[in-house]
Queue: 2 jobs
Job 1
Amino acid sequence: MTQAYAAAVESLRPSAPPGAGEAGRLTIERAVGLLAGRARCRLADAHRHLLRMATEENRGLLEVATSVIRLLDVADSDTPMMSGLDIGRVPLQVTVPVRRFAPWIGMVQRVLDITPGMAAFLSAERDPAGRLTELVWVAASPEAVAPNGLRGAQLLGLRTSEHFPEVVASDRWAVYQQVLDTGAPTVLGPFAHRDGMYTVRAHRLGEGLLVNWTRHDEVPGGLGDRLASTERLGNLGWGEWDLVSGEVYWSDQLYRIYERDPRLGPLAPGAADGSAVEADEPLRAAAKAQLDRGERVDVVTRVRVNGRVKHLRTVADASRDADGRPLRVYGIVQDVTAQEAGAKRLADVERQLDEQRRSLAAEHELAARLQRIILPIPDGPIVLPGLKVALRYLPAGQEDLVGGDWYHAAELRDGSVLLAVGDVAGHGTPAATTMAQLRHALRALAVTTSCPAELLKHLNTLSCELARETPELASTAVVARFHPARNEIVWAQAGHPPPLLSRGGRTAALERPEGPMLGVVEDATYQTARLDFRVGDVLLLYTDGLVEHRRRGPDDGLASVIATVDEAVRAAPGQPLAQLLSRLRRTNPDDDTCILAARPVSGETQDLRRYLSSATLDG
């Protein structure tokens, strides 16, 4: 039975397009599981619906699956949202929900529904010491039966200790504990139990037990068993109507479909019309006309059974005499209620997806427009007193991930230059809005003070106020002031990645002064550091999307950026800043990246190529 279970699970797994790889297959499986869980339909139906969506939208299956996951996944745990941030020297993880969904029990029950024999999935309960105290029936095959006569779905929710106390008192209980602890499957028996001989197989599945029972004093495999298994597998029954004698025959499964006691015998043809849904009368009339013309019938109609509406597919034909008159009508009736209901729910889910997609697209457009207004990226370098500055903005790979990265580069009233780069956690309109508030605040505060540490202290006060309204708000920043007369930079940082200084063909990260991220510590203080900034140097300020990747540490990304800058400087020491920035690529495709590069200039070195070339040769 466990092999059959595994084969059934494998048959339900959706296939990935060629070349998608293992990651692509897992993405499609996850999307199918989400659709099936939301629509409460079979995995196969959800997979077909996903394929249809891809065809109708003229998009790749993997792209559609990714979109479904992004829109349907439900938060149930936390994971780091920003990394590499710190309070002083202590790393800080800011968390937001991670979305995920696993339709466990529903899938297990759907497999057991088509599994012959007695099988069940039982959830385990343990005491504080880890000992098994209870097994609860949460999924069962139709043939699973208890000594008191309860079958299949009637067993769900029953507690072993209350309804099967002899199991708890037997040696099997300790074996079940061992299977749960080790994950090693086991076979018990054959052993005598009540009126038969049984073998029990137990496997750990998740945190519960998958158990099946084989009774050895029955003779399986006969024609009747095979027919019954086929009927259960397809949820169908068959019947015959002898038009000469009037005799009607129903199979066992047909009685189950109509929920009729077999002792009452089959319904006479036409006797079920009172339960038929009136709106389907044209379909039934057309099917009868088909049969009268000698054609085979294949039609889905609705009937009311014990107060519920079922969708029944009928495939029927007739044996006829020499003149074509029907003598015997025979057919198959399949209960397709679950498929029809699943298809309707899938259509509803698709409409919800369209609405969510339109809503996300509108939010993305609003955030993108806000970002373009607040954060215009110049086409060429910015010339400031004693400095030339170039900027590059790399948006996130997913179009709905508009972020909160920002920059500032402007001359102050005293002739110095203020440079800044910041990063607001999260994406969408909230992040873009907070980014705008911080950037405008920095510009306004620079009228009152030009000290980077003081500016960060004021931004932290503002961020703490904003965090009261949005608790998950967090951001980082680095602020630098350049004095052209002294060729000196004074800078401070708030939980931000360290700036990079390229000097003499070698790039290194600067040692960061103390400073916690913004919006976390009330009344935080920030330290400053000083740096001689000479002609030929290049300073890089950037956000963490340049160096941090969800599968690699920040040190790996930082080393890669340093190597790229060194290679660029060696290859063309006098290249413009824009060419240098064009070599840099973000490490994290799910995060925006803002890069600011600055180099000193003087009246004689506005064009640095000649100077840097000779300086490199001299060095």
Job 2
Amino acid sequence: MLLWQLACVTVIVAICTGVFVSIGVQQLRAEAETSALSIARTVAADSDVRADVARASADTGTPTNASLRGGPLSVLAAAAEANTGALFIVITDDHGIRLAHPDPQLLGAEVSTSFAEALAGRETVSWEAGTLGESARAKVPVRDPDTDEPTGEVSVGFAPSSVFKELPLLLGGVALAAVVALALGAVVSFVLRRRLEHLTLGLQPEEMSALVQNQAAVLDGVGDGVLAWGPDDVVTVANTTAARLLGIPDLVGRRIHDLALPGPVIAALAGERRLSATGGRGPDAAEPVVLADHVVYIDTHPVSHANRDLGLIAVIRDRTDVVTLTDRLETVASMTDALRVQRHEFANRLHVTAGLMDAGRVPDARDYLDDVLEASRTAGGPSTGEHLTEPFLVSLLEAKAAQAGERGVHLTVGADSLVRGVVSLPEDVATVLANLVDNAVSAAVYGQQPRWVDVELLDDADTLVMTVSDSGQGVANGARVFSDVPRTDLDPDAVHGRGIGLPLVRDIAARLGGEVWLADAGGRDGSGAVFCARLPGVMRAPTRPRQGED
């Protein structure tokens, strides 16, 4: 990289040097030509020169060399040469005969270069080679003082050595400037290279190209959302999955705190920075949050290189399907436990019946079976109430009642419960109701006798309202019951009790347009807490059976 920069600087300096030298040479040539023209004009305008040239041109004969030596024109031309430093000053008549020349031997002879332009009244400037060698010369017509017609010419020339005598100084200045520019370019190139290495963490351009390609392939290939931002909280990297989960199409270039995201999401994204700033350690597992219709886990990790803070990177994992499947599996597990309890109870009843029959007490056995049959004909079962007949809710509460019974808690459905519709969103209803019931059962276990949990369910059109109360010790801090503070009172080896909890229940209800709230914190006179939930859009009207169907 540095060699390429130095090569570019060298080429640029060489080109600039050549241009400057060329301009300097042209300027010296132009100055010589201008000086020659000025001197020729001055000499041609002299009255004595005009008169002498006019007389020589009017003479029909050709002047001899001897008559011209030491003449007034030769004296005048020699004096002008000495004063101006010109190579030569030549004066001719209208036939090109030299009337004045630096070489006396050439006086009276015709000049070696063309004089037609001067006799036509035109001034010329050019570089020509004559008897005295190559020179920058100017030719100016000498006009008759009476008629103003051209009667001869004045030719003034400067030798190349005198024209370019300042060229070494010019070349030295240009060379010095080129060396300084080259040195400055080398220093700047080195500084820029160090700066670029600092900004790119030492990566070369080809490595950066490969890194960008690999980054694009990885970001578009993973199924999780990836979001990265620098120490200034400005997003620098975001893949399409992150934009889809967050619901914001343009993330790059925006500040994290300026994004229109829920508070728990912003807190989850900024949580690792707060911990790293205080020297703490983050949680072992991310807490779930709700984003629109998605349940996501957000893991944030600080990124550094060579003890330099580069910002944070967040991995956003969509676990909506996993949470839904988990809820279904928990419901199936609850049903399985309920069936296991019922099987055990059914086996006990068979043992009682068989014992009565073995003892010959057939009437007593018959009465016992009638009682069991009458109890099974109750509309909603023994623990779900008379008016709760919705199959999904009955099954779920029967299973929860069986689980609560194993923990010594009696779960009942309030007599005022009335559900006439059918559950249309079983996953959301199971998540909210099962979490509230599980929390109530756990609270009742640590309460005083008798231990109970009471559930009341009411529906109004498509809205389901539920109330769950318990006999526990109440909620110590009602203001933080829905906060995202991780639980620390659980057995590390426990399998159950680590669900998504009240924060997610609240978010799910809010997503449906409803709410979950603490109606009574309890803790007074042995009364437990009372939680309420309102879930719009989770119920639908029952399908009426067609004629002839039961």
